Amino acid sequence: MKKKTEGKPAAKAEKKKPTLRGEIYDWVQSLITALMICVVLFLFFVRVIDVSGGSMNPTLFDGNKMLVSDLFYKPKAGDVVIFKKDEYDPDKALVKRVIATGGQTVNIDFDTGVVYVDSEPLEEDYTAELTWNKLDFMGPWKVPEGSVFVMGDNRNASTDSRDKRIGNVDERLIIGRAYVVVYPVSELRWIS
Which residues are designated catalytic? Predict the structure, then answer.
């Protein structure tokens, strides 16, 4: 006869209750990881740049902050870009819209205020008004390969490629394309 053994229920592994110290450690670890991701993101991929002045009204306003990136970026007409031009001001980054790229020809009819690229009038619903301010522009103007022709959206209050100090902008001088207005938060939006 077999001896019947009294079966004891298997001791349930008690789940350890997290300690305050352990929870704090987890939170600190999560915060440090998030901070490192932000640093890498903003160091290598994205920058926050301030808008200074009114040359891009009504698209961008003085004091706006925008996210800018040059990751896999190739300039194209219509993009809002940030660049530096030492001949104009070596300490200042400028924000303008790309009107034409290398190989295209720009002309402006200052009597009607219309901008033409390759003899086609641009549809510019983003501008504050028609283009009356000539600056140093002598058209037609052929944009060399590897460069862009830029103008502010507030055409008559913008120093841009029409000014000989800026002229054509070498693509290598472009810091990046503006993608999103992030400040003030009430104006959070994509930049088109």
Answer: 55, 96
